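Form 7-S
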Amino acid sequence: MRFIFSMQWTDKIRQVKIILVIAAVLIAVVSLVVSHLLIRDLAEEERSKTGVWAEAMKSLNNADEQTDLNLVLTVINGNNTIPVIVKDSEGNIQTFRNVEIDAQNAEDSLKFLSDKTETCDKIRIYIDEDNTSNGYLDVYYSESVMLRRLAFYPYVQLGVVMIFVVIAIFALLTSKRAEQNKVWVGLSKETAHQLGTPISSLMAWTQILKETYPDDELLPEMDKDVQRLQLIADRFSKIGSLPDPVPSNLNEVVDHVVTYMSRRTSKKVSIERHFPKQNVIVPLNASLFEWVIENLCKNAVDAMEGMGAITILVEDLENKVTIDVSDTGKGIKKKDVKNVFRPGFTTKQRGWGLGLSLARRIVEEYHKGRIYVKNSEIGKGTTFRIELRK
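Output:
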């Protein structure tokens, strides 16, 4: 029941994350749409102002003693933002406004202005009252600096918001992972502490039984089980610390696990091992690494439902050593492959889903290696690969 509750809670958290991501995307889209509409309205307003400015230029060209030049000049000089360039009917530059000419183009400013009109919008105003094509001015204009900044600003704003969201999520996940690690380490050390007293008592009782019944054939097996409990307690005590790996013979470590598993699994399960001819020496914490191989083998036995073959292949490559643990079980669904190492995930009716999570922690954090699902096929089996640096 606790496992089901844990999985339901994990699924709810995932659903909340998906909802938050969708909400963030919708907010971003709405923000961009609103910004686009606002910029479109401002661009239309600038276009209208440019039309008024062009009419003021026409009034200036047709000015007589009755024309109110103050009003015309106020309109013309009031444009301090919209870049405009005026050409006559023969294509000559008459005037320009709000166009910056840098020092590099100062010597040939007319050519620079003429080239710039190619990227501008145009309004044609006829000087004579009949609107004939004999006398006219072309007013070229483009977006103001302020409008371009407003068009660019929403993307900058969204970029800053996204960076903030990514940092916040990273900080949240880091904090959550640190909290999980504290719980994991505390639980492991408390388990080792609680096991310590009864194991010491069992060791003492075993010693007394050996002295009382020296010829009893069951006592050696009992002693092995007590030593096994001591090994398990030692493994739990090392979780959370960083035990120093020492050069170890990987062949012997794997062989020790296979010997132990062979005595405690069904005879219908065969475990084959393939080692290089020479010893494979890698830095290991043997007791913890044996735990990894045991977990993989136990999962393989469960996947095969007590009948099949497990193959352990050790390869000594140039810069690394690989250990492949293969089974002939039911395989892993593609949608579950990415979740097999997640704490709490399991496909078994009974189980906490911590074995593979612990295995990855031991391989990646304590041995700086890598563990992953090499391949899996429904109905044919699964292969897990461990890579260790030499």
